[in-house]
Fold each of these.
Amino acid sequence: MSKDVSPNNFGRSSAEGASSRQFFVVSISGSVEAAEFPEHDELYCRYFVEFGSDWQIISGVAEGMSQISKKSKCHIDDRQLCVWNLPVELTLKSTNITGWPKIVVSVYGNDSFGNDVVRGYAWSFVPLESTATTLSMPAFVPASSSKLQEMTAWFTGRRPEFLNPAIVVHGESREREQILFIFCPPMF
Amino acid sequence: MAEVHVLGQIQGARHFERNSLFCRWELRTGVGWKVVTGLTEGQTQSDTPSCGNSCVWAHPIDLHLHTKGLQDWPKLLFEVHQVDKYGRSVLAGYGFCNIPSTPGLHNLVIPTWRPRGSPRDRFRQFFLGGSTQLSEPELVCSSEDRYQLSTESTGTVLVQLALVTTLLLLLGALSAGQNATEVDDEIVTNATAAYYEDESALNETLLETSTAADNEEVATTAANASTA
């Protein structure tokens, strides 16, 4: 993913009176490339970019959903990736570094009964450097709080998931979550 | 006057004995540092890896700090705990790291340790579980004598931090000129205004604050600061 930040291009939006707010522009262009989940197949992802209240979108969309991808059948390809290549294009404007954009990726798939269940959540800050970077984000999924719930969830397909995936980028109240970590990351 | 933005995450941990882990973290800053926005402490989720040996927490650290001096650089303290199969939490390790001082991306690997109790304590822990803890966790990041303490090494915590700094180089130049570690408010205001408006005014402000003996050194630092 390559990103272009121009901290020297300070624009001055002039207002009446003496104060002028300086803003800077961050342009993000990249893609959610692939995921490596050893235990699951036929996955799709949704991503969204979360940013602070001082930030505004100038162009592009802050969310997207990919196609459903199956791993390669080629026997010499041992990477076992679900490839999406979902483009991410967004330009933001802000006066404040606080609230720097973060990208949250949620991966879903079908279980053996055909229900759509969540397979993992991952997030990362959008890189600060303007060079092309590949991010590897390890993913995790909420675990059931008891064995009974785990069994019920397996039968009915109603696994624990986050009501709002944005909770993964907030630091408050995470101690109540019990998480099962699915090792390998979506690459970005 | 100088601002430091810390954007990152506590990624996870590895090389611990058992793998259901969570971490309590805390930011320690000195006098003169102010936290503008962001949480300064928290507790991560407790994570069990389904494959591999590394726990993933991905806990966000999003801080905006403000300082008028360069001493007492902020530190992050970590306390890693294991969750055993009965749901009890047992201390797995203490660790700390300094927040980096250069802008850019930093991958920090923080080794942790925990106190060993007496042989009697260890015998008891073998059968009943539990661990020895410090009665004063401040010891982890202070430079007091620790030679009475016997510890064992445990795993490592992985943290990734990206740092953005504003006017830090200028703060260093002003501190050098004044021969002080904290800078007067008035000089700060004048210098900041000069920095954004007029570079020649900036050089004048910096030269005014220096003593006769340090003139040359400050002028060089000021020239470096304004071109950086």
Amino acid sequence: MAKYYDIDDIITDEEIVAVIFQKAASGVGIDPSSETDCVEVGSKVELPFWLAHELQQRQAVSMNIPTSFNQNTRLEIQADSACVDLRSRCPFFYEFGCKIAPLVGARNIGPLLLSAFKSRYKEVLTKAHTAAFTAASKNLTILTKEETNLYEAAQSSMAAFKKWRMGGPRFQKASILGRKRKSTE
Amino acid sequence: MYCLPVPTNSRSFRFKFTIYAQHGSMRDTSGRFEERSSLLTIKMQEEGLDVQTTRNADHYGALTHHLSLVRNKCCLMAYVYNRAETIRSLIWKVGPVLPQEIQEKLSHTEEDYFKKHAGTLQSYMSRLDLDLTVDMVPLKDPYIQVRVLDNFGVVLSDDKTTNFAQHSMHFFKRTDAEQFISRGLMEELTS
């Protein structure tokens, strides 16, 4: 319940999972391939995680492993995890993997996440501390949200350290002002 | 879809509102969706089935609609909650008076919330006889040198009345200057 208000958690729950319906459901327009608005038993549908999770608890569906964690990704991570583009697969790779691991019944997701994170974390930190601000932009596009947070935290701590060394002005205009945004209505 | 522009980083909020729109298309849009789950329950009752325990197709349809509604509620609650958190932090960053560019982005209830929160903080600080919103950065020197960026005339401060012409430089007491700097009206000079 502590995650009810957490926006990152809500967006993580929106990830798509392929499920197979064990029971029929009528009156829902979820399945795009059926003509009526009923879902038949045994039909394969793509649902967001929050819906699939609830329905699985009530034994209406059974979840398959999502495509982000399939054999291809596993092989790529074992080959060289620092170059794998995780953001295009799943921007919340680690959080989503943690949620889905107990539900799908595949016991190798956990070690996969761990090994991927260990090797990528080293890369993230070294790049953040040593690279100039614009140099590592190619590397940033393949990081997941969690890794991007780490990267930005490391960069901001380096910037704060440099500023402290040089002794600039310590009072600043509040960062919330001065951002011109067009209203989106 | 009514969407307030947000004074903070609104990238994640915009993403969530596209998700909200996608929910609408996922559901059967031939009827108003909030009636669908009740329609299905009524249909089950007419067929003489026990609504609580039967698990037929209608039950799962009603369940899906109900879960969608609960999910929408969760998204909206989280949005409002996070906005309220941002508004609370505004008092500490900008002060009890909001500049116009932020003021126009808040709804009426949010402005009300801000005023009440600022009022509560003020009464607490006056009870303690201590201003908590100054000295956010640790002290080095009780006086600092500032340059005025905007022209805002004569200002009454603790011990003197100063005329703030634009680009004039003053030697000012830290606690007073801090609120002007955070609003962007002055800048600190480091020699």
Amino acid sequence: MTLGMINANPVVHAKRERIIRSEDIHSDDALDALDVFDSVRDIKDPEHPYSLEQLSVLSEESIAVDEKLGRIKITFTPTVKHCSMATVIGLCLRVKLMQCFPPHFKVDITVSPGSLANEEAVNKQLNDKERVSAALENPSLRQLVDECLYSNELYSY
Amino acid sequence: MVDNSDARTLAKSFLINVQVQSLAVRDRKLCLEVLQCLLDAYTDAVVVLGDDLVYGICEAIDEEKDPRCLMLNFHLVEILGHLYPDPSGPMASFAQDIFDILSRYYPIYFTHPKDDGLDIKREDLSKGLMNAFSSSPFFEPFVVPLLLEKLSSSLLSAKLDSLKYLNSCLYHYGGKRMVKHSRVIWSNLKDVIFNFSPERPLLTDELDVDMKSEVNQIRMEALNCLETALSCFDFSEQDSFLCLIIDDPDIGTKLESLTSITSYSGTSAEIQRDLSAIGGIFTSIAKVSIYCCNKVFLKFFPCLMDVLGVSRNHSSQFCITNHKTVHGGMNFGALFLSVELLSSSRELSLVSNIAAEFIAESKSWFFMLKSFSMDLCHVLGSVLRTSNTSMVASEKEGVLCAVKGLQSLSTFPSSCSPISEGCYEDVLEILMSIITGRSDETYLWNLSLKALVQIGLWIESASGHDSARGICYNKVVEKILSMLQTNDSMVSLSLKLVAISEIANVGQYVLSIIRALEDAIISSLVACIQGGLKSSDSLVGLLECYTSRVLPRCCTSGSFDDVAVQFSINIWNQLENVSVFNTDVTMQNVLDQVMITMKLLVAGCTVENQSLILKKAHCVILSMDFLKTQPFQSIHGIIALSCRDKWIASLFGSVVIALRSQTPLTDMKGILNLFLILLPEGNLPAAQALASMVNKCPSSINEPEISARLSLDQACEDILKLCLWTLESNSHLKQYNFLDRDICSQRSIVLGMAWVGKGLLMRGHEKVTEIAMFLMKCLVSDSNEDITLQQQKENGKGVGMDANSSLATSAADAFHVLLNDSEDCLNKKFHATIRPLYKQRFFSSMLPILLSSIKESGSTSKKIALYRALGHIISDTPLAAVLAESKKIIPALLDTLAISGSETSHKKIVYSLLLVLSGILMDDNGKVTILENIHTVIECLIKLISYPDLMIVRETAIQCLVAMSVLPHARIFPFRPRVLKAVATALDDRKRAVRQEAVRCRQAWASIASRSLQF
């Protein structure tokens, strides 16, 4: 990047311990926030070799799931106010959720209130179906998203 | 042959002519090996070279970098060190040069990758360098400062290495040389010990801290160093070093602050760390020698006792009620340290001989300990008594400490035990009162039990159970055993059993424990069969404890046979004496457990003892109720079994199952007949007993005089009469007509035949084919007109079909019995004859038959049964055999999966078949076969993704699909859209595990073409 990094020296947090779920044979496992968090916590930040969890962009508390209504709502917090990567992060989240969860879930992705200068514009962009699919048609953007999604997989599998 | 003068010439010329460091690695290594060989094998020849030799070697080893050569270098220096011990010799003069060369490598920093093929690890190099350093005391002025400097390094591995080296140097250089460093050494060690001690001194092993962690190693090594330093110094040096330690103002102030804290709950980590550090130092000192132990006791023990409020025995009469510290809470620090001192003095007393005059000496640790012991013991007891049930960590530590202290107090060697007999009794009393009265406090209870067991083991190994203390302990065991009889609600039965089985660890009490258990079992067994027992749980618990926990201890002590014969005959006696069983419902779980016990008892006996038990059992058999109407030798027809008969028959079956093959079966004909009558009644033990009989019966009998014994062939013939299909009505075997029997007894016969067939199959007898054919006949039996017609006549339309398919189902399941390993009988434990590869043989002979009959069969119901049988055969055979036949298997396997997939009752088969399929998928040859059938395989797996009955089936099916995604691209690509679509539905599965697999699978298949999921 010619302009240099947007946040050159981010605060890195410790990864939270993974909770291993106890196996209950008889009951159904409802989809919950931890499920969603587990699937997105390892997404790499577009700028740094850290995961979104380590940069505290995401936490389990910032995810809400309503299984009955079929809704997933994620609020994420960019590391700096003027972060231009927020849209890329949002796009990564959406692609990952599309891959991991059934299509009947309605996914809302927003930045947390007050964390970004152009908050409204970004929110609008992230939840616009056509703009999302248009973005995914863009080869360089697509490549960036794929990198973020898959670079950590070497470690997780 | 090289003689000494040649060797000397060679060495000289080598030292003059060879420039080792200018050579390549390989040659350098060879050179060093030559030098090493000269030093090792021709020591006398080369030692006279003196300065030249040492100088030459210095040159040769300078600036070396290759790890292999380094190892040789270190070794050369080590040899030199041992070669020239003279203070005016060459080693003394070259010590600094050699040190300069070697010190560059310290601390070893070695980053070669693991697979460099050199097979040299960092530890090897570090050890080599350590040996080189400690080889000669002339290194001392250079090495010790270096080590002490690196000890303060922040790199953990350097710290650890320094401690190890220091330890080795202390040991090899000797006290004289090291004494001048003692002050610096102590201050360095003190730093390490105080900084690297664990925060929870006692609970470390329970909190599951990794004992091998570097931090812990550092602490251990530092304490080791302390011990080595103390033991390598001479008397006066030792004394001054010891004073250095125990008079250290740091220790004094820390100890003071530790003992003045009133409550240890919620103290900072630093205080806890200090505590464990001081404990470690005390322990290390006390372990070194009696002198050191005396010193540390004299200095610290009285004041610790003072803090605990313990007074010397002679100065005050002990009285628990007016004790001052009990109320304010015990000072844990003082408690911990005094218990540490106690246990390390105990360890010392184990390794060193304690002379009689020492015991009398008033300045010895022993005297001091003795004067405090009585009161200390009661204080420890009161800690346990007042501990509350909440058990926070700090409370736990107090309890642990107290129990440990009591245990140490009572396990000193008898020659120097600090406590009196009365006090010893008190200790046992305290622990017992916890066992009997406080079973709800699990932690305390388990600790006390463990301590009791340890005390028992100690008595056994040290003084024997005749000694006064042994007799004391006998009372404890008696008390625990008497808990079994009393029916108090204080301690639950399961805890009582835990206590008993733990005490059984003490070898000498096993027999009395077994007696007590047997009495309890017999009395509640009699109550059970007479109908006086409300719940069978306690009896089952007793039997379980007996068989699985106490009986195995008998095996090791060698008294198994006596115990087994006595107890099993005792059981038979009870059955004989009670003529009417009063249980309305047969207590099946009790019967099962008694059968298991009986089998284990019989199986462990020798041939002679088995015969004894068998004889007794045979006598009881003759008193069975139904024999009142007909004689034993000629029983026939359908018999009605009373409850007692059922017990006797089942237990007799268990005896027969567990016999060794050498044990002769008297009256085999009668027994066979009995079992043959019982088998169609659905008596499973009878079938299993028959199976063991045919499995173990010798194939030919050389003693014709024993007419009661049957040959194997005759026995088989008799058994196979049960499978006679249809007969002419005038035949004398009419009673055996299989088709005339009702469906229940038909199914029992099928199951029984499966067991008998298993017995024959395992020994490799050819008659098993007849049984297999019989089972096949049952499988396809609905083509048989007679049976359907007859059934329809009896039960009206439609029912016949049901009954038949259930006969076919049980025939199919019979194949599972045939091939599956059983815990109940016909295994190694019960002395079965097992021919190797019997499963594989059966598999390859049955496979073509089943495949062709599947092809021939028309109706679906028949097909379902056949496929079920095939499923059992495939999944129970070892995978290697199945893989060899994978070409034939795969299509049939897929059909089976497809058909079974729609039946709920088949879910276990579906799962095990799926496992076979995944096994084939993992194999290279199997992959080829899979590729040939790829279309059907994928269709089948896709169907199983939504298998409703079993979660693991869905999960495994998806895993199989993941495994298939690496098959050749061109073959699997056409299926990509279908698989992706099918897996997408699994994203919404009820179970989390399936969902996660689905995500993996989706990614694996999506990435075949591109990373995008858009297809």
